[in-house]
Structure formats: C-alpha cells, structure tokens
Amino acid sequence: MLGVHLASGEGIQAIHTAAVFVSFFAGCVISGLIIKHSALRSGYPYGTALVLESALLVGAACLFNRGAAVGTYVAAMACGLQNAMATTYSGAVIRTTHVTGIVTDLGIAIGQFARRESVDRRRVGLYLVLLTGFFIGGIAGAAGFLILKYNVLFFPATITACAGIGYFIATHTSARFRAPAQH
Length: 183
Known about the structure:
Layout lengths: L1 H6 L3 H24 L11 H20 L5 H20 L9 H15 L6 H28 L5 H24 L6
Helix pairs in contact: 2-4, 3-4, 3-7, 5-6
C-alpha cells in the first residue's frame, strides 16, 4: 500500500501507511529488548511482553473510541510485539499476526506430499490449526466490531493480560518450590 500511495501521489496516505509499518517494527524492537533468548523457557520475561501488549491494546481501544487515528499505530505496535514474541519463542515456526507465511508453508508441504516426499505432519497440523484460528478469529473480530466497535479490543487485551499475569504467577510459584541446587 505504501508503494501505491507513493505512486499515486497520495502523500498523507503514504505517511500514514509508513507510520503503521514503523509502529509494527517498533513493537518488534520492543519485543527484542524484552525477550533476550530464542527458546521458550520459564523465567524469561514473556509475562512482561504480554502485559505490555495488553496495555497497548487497551490504549488503542481508548484512542479509537476518542476518534484518534493514532490508535492505528498503537494497535500496530501491539501486533509487532505479539508477532516478534511468538516468532522468538517458536523459532519462526509460528507467526501470529499474518497468514501468508502459514499459507506458503502449507502450499510447500502439499507440493512435497504430491512429489511423495516426507512431510512434517505435526507442523502441517499446527499450520492448519493456526489457519483455522485466523479464519474464526477474523469472523469473531468482525462480528464483535459490528456490535462493540473498538471496545472489542478489550477482549484480546484481557486474554493477553491474564496470560501475562498467569505466566508471572506460574514462573514465580515454580521457582519457590524448586529444590536448591547441590554444590
């Protein structure tokens, strides 16, 4: 869209589209600052990232409800944070904010299967679950928007806040009950 807006001489739209991209990228950078390792391990600050994502979604909903276009940038930042966090702990197996990679990987797997090559069935199953989730989530989000408008963002904000707080509780509780290391 940025290319279309630039080619069409739509400067204001081009600036808006570039700002959405930069906001998504900023969310990815924030995730990289918070999560320092590429393997899912207890004790790492996933809870912090989830709670921050929740706060960004609440902020976006509030801004949208006030008619502030900057809500788009805050929502894009939350998407970048979520996508980078999921990519970090999944080793780039899972993308949570876009479906094109999932469709690409499914297409590759079907092509390999048609050539009678082995296919990682667990990964294909995961991609099918994710694709189904995108589809159902898109319908639920659109239906929710028709009824609740931007307040629908409070649902994913609540889910991510609960996940982040739950992560904090689980990691701190399990740390207290671990046996001390033998010296």
